[in-house]
Design goal:
Elements (H helix, E strand, L loop, with lengths): L10 H5 L12 E2 L4 E2 L6 H19 L5 H7 L13 H47 L19 E2 L2 E2 L2 H6 L6 H32 L54 H5 L1 H19 L2 E3 L7 E3 H9 L21
Antiparallel strand pairs: 1-2, 3-4, 5-6
Helix pairs in contact: 2-3, 3-4
Length: about 325
């Protein structure tokens, strides 16, 4: 239902007709080119006032008042000279009322549209606020392969500004899956190597027993075991060791035959060389002593830890297991 009309929207104010306050005829004298000076009948003025009030109520109900205006016009004209102008006066009133109704409808439509736009803007601001919450990467996010500037990711090379300004689309889920695959591969490699060493130990005689001086496993610290130093860095996805250096623990014993006896000295020297290079390489590596034991390049891990600076309440964590990093 339409809202009740205000004082400015009453039929009397729309037509500018106030019969109880103004007693002059609303007719027009053509000879004198002015409004008629004759008074209207008192009874007609009372009738006109009642019709105006009724017309206001009809406008509130969105009812047509054309017939009412035709009845109202004679009531505000003098009976002697200007009753013949009633039809023309009613027609002008109808145009005024029609114009007024259109203006009111346009105003209500504009107000309604403004409300809709305001609601849409508020909703858009709320959605944008929720999206903004995810723009800055939280400390516990998985940024595998995108921490070191210029290193490889699933979509190419990135820089620090690309990572933190959101200019680079980083596929974290496939990279996380790749990490899991590497973990499984590392576990299978360790198991296979242990089985192979056991078989070699059973085949070798006591006088021919040869052992590798360097092992990639480091004694446990508080129940945490370091993973083998092999494969890729969990941050930059580059090899942990120089590809030209054979990781410790991969030296295989040969068959117990004449060729083995002739090459024993060379293999010992080679194992010693591998051991020395592996120790030097291991000094450039760090590993998670909190939970997972995964190895990382020392420089990569330092850059990772630097991302936590300036974030109160967030301690550096392991890029893989998310445990608080232990130095």
């Amino acid at each position: 239902m339409d809202q009740p009309l205000s004082h400015q929207n009453t039929l009397s104010s729309i037509l500018k007709v106030y019969p109880l306050d103004e007693h002059r005829c609303l007719g027009y004298t053509l000879s004198n080119r002015r409004r008629c000076m004759n008074p209207t009948n008192a009874t007609s003025r009372n009738t006109a006032s009642s019709l105006l009030e009724r017309g206001t109520r009809m406008l509130e109900q969105a009812e047509s008042i054309d017939s009412l205006l035709e009845c109202l016009a004679p009531m505000v004209l003098c009976r002697r000279y200007h009753q013949n102008q009633a039809r023309g006066l009613a027609s002008r009133w109808k145009e005024k009322v029609t114009t007024h109704i259109r203006e009111q409808e346009a105003r209500r439509e504009a107000e309604s549209q403004a409300e809709v736009e305001d609601e849409a803007e508020e909703h858009s601001e709320e959605e944008q606020g929720e999206l903004n919450l995810g723009i800055e990467p939280p400390p516990d996010a998985t940024w595998r392969g995108s921490i070191i500037p210029g290193f490889r990711t699933s979509s190419g090379h990135v820089t620090w500004s690309d990572v933190f300004e959101g200019n680079h689309d980083i596929q974290t889920r496939p990279q996380t899956e790749n990490v899991e695959e590497r973990r499984e591969s590392n576990t299978e490699t360790v198991s296979t190597r242990e089985e192979r060493q056991q078989e070699i130990s059973r085949v070798e005689t006591p006088s021919r027993t040869h052992t590798v001086s360097i092992s990639t496993r480091i004694p446990e610290r508080k129940g945490i075991t370091r993973r083998p130093i092999e494969g890729d860095c969990g941050i930059c996805i580059l090899p942990l060791l120089d590809e030209t250096v054979q990781p410790a623990g991969d030296t295989q014993a040969g068959d117990d035959d004449a060729d083995y006896e002739s090459d024993t000295g060379d293999e010992s020297d080679s194992a010693s060389s591998v051991a020395t290079v592996s120790i030097e390489e291991s000094e450039e590596l760090v590993w998670c002593k909190a939970r997972c034991g995964i190895n990382y390049h020392r420089n990569c891990l330092k850059t990772w830890i630097d991302t936590f600076r300036g974030k109160p309440g967030h301690s550096p964590t392991c890029p893989t297991c998310r445990s608080v990093w232990r130095r």
